Each structure stands twice: as C-alpha cells, then as structure tokens.
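Appendix B. Raw example, untouched.
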Amino acid sequence: MTRDEYLSQLKYLLGSLSEEERMEALQYYVDYFEEAGDDAKVMAELGSPEELARSINEKFATAVMHSKTQHRTKSESGENESAFDALYFNFHSDAVTSLECNLCAAEIVFISGSEYSVETRGIDKKDFDCSLSEDGTLSVKNMKKINLDFFMHERRRRIVPRILVTVPKNASLECFKLKLGAGKLSMENVLFSCNSSELEIGAGSVECGKIHSGKTKVRCGMGNVEFSGSIKGTACIDCGMGNVKLNLEGYPSDYSYDLKLGLGEFSFNGEKKSGVCKVLADEKKANHFNVSCGMGNVSISIK
C-alpha cells in the first residue's frame, strides 16, 4: 500500500468526524510521513488505516469526558452553564435489555466497549434525552430539528452535533430499534445480537457493524442503509427512493423472498430484477424476505 492509498483510506474511515476535524487529523499524518521519510516504517508503526481511524475516533470519547469534567467544575464554581457542554451517561451492561435510538440530524458513531454509554457534543441538553426504563430499555433521543443553513460553509463557527454510543462487545439484546431522520450513523467494529430489530431511515445514512438479528424490519425513505451480519426469520424491507444493502452470513438456499417492485432495482445474490414487477416465492421458507421497493435499490447478498 502506498502513502497516498493509506491516507485516502484513512480519510474515508474518518467520515464520522466533522470536515475540520478530519482535515486536521489528515494534515497531522501527512506531516508525519514527510518528517519520517520512510513510508513503510511509518505504516508499520501506525498500523492499518482501520486501526488508526479507530484510535482517532475513540479520542472523541476522551475529549467528551474531558469537556464533561470541565463543565462540572464550572458549574460548581457558580459560572453559567453552557447549553452545548458535553453530556455523558453510562449504564451497567447487565441492566440493559433493549436499545432504542430516535435521532434527528447528527453524526452518530457506535463503538465497542465494556459497558453501555452515551456521550454528546454540540447538542442542547434540553433537546436530548437518555434514560433507562424499568424493563431495561435504554432510550436515546435527540429530536431537535436543525435549520437548513446549519451545514453552510460560510458559518463562522460550526458546532457539529455528535453522539457517541458505546455497546459492550457481543452484547445480547431483546430488541434494537433505530430511527434516524438525517445525519450519518456508523458502527466501528460493533458486534451484538438481538431477537428483533427495526431500522427506520429518512434521508440519513446508516452503516451497521455486524448485527445478528431475528425478526427484522427496515424502512428507508431517501437515505442509505448498509446492514452486515445475519437475519433469521421474517424480514420486511420497505425502500422508497433510497438504497438498502444487506451483506449477510448464511446459505442462499435457506432463504426465500416475495417482491413488489416499482421503477427501482432488486438484486438477490446476483439475480437481478428491474422495472415494475411482482414476484412470489414458490416455497416460503423459515427465513423469508418481504421486499417492497419503489424507485430505490435493494441488494441482498448471502454468503
């Protein structure tokens, strides 16, 4: 791998950072390469782009914790609290049985850790809620709508809403629900299982880690969803004008599908269909997809 390829891949993997943060990090490592003068040695020292990106992204958590400590100190000293100071919540892994995220416009990153925690930056605390119900459902909500000029480059100072969710590795949940209006959500080496999952995406982008799910529902309006892992049982996929891509583990022969297709495209392990059509399975198997696709694209790959 050349230096340019390494840095290009690193830039892609840092997509959860703001543009300013991403460029600052990249410039640091461009200078690092230049000063060292030995690309192979530097890449061996830094590790793979995935490893380096994970390290950089996880520093966000450290930064939020530091901000949280500063916020507490200011409050105790009697200074005015800032509505946009970092928020932090943590929960013991044994106390959480389900996870529900209802989010509007933000950059969201899921990472693996030892317990459940939620950290924010750039979100007004009155517009954010994180709580654990008596039945063990961890609820994360940020429903503040953001003005259309929020992402304009001419803003002198741009506070990017950020949410970091930590999930214990190999966690087992009863239910995982995600509702995302806009923004971007990515999972960094996150692996968990759930008896059921529901993903509802408006105009946002979701890149799931590895989820082993039972009964599954995916509803995508104009956004993009990429789901990796496995799905057992019935899966309902409803895609309007967006894109849904499932990369699943298993055997294609164990799955069947019913399809209702408008002007979009559908692919099932290389078998492609486009244009208006309706397909019903000859035999409905235990693992079955009910797919409805309007003008979007649904792709299912099982290996």
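End of appendix B.
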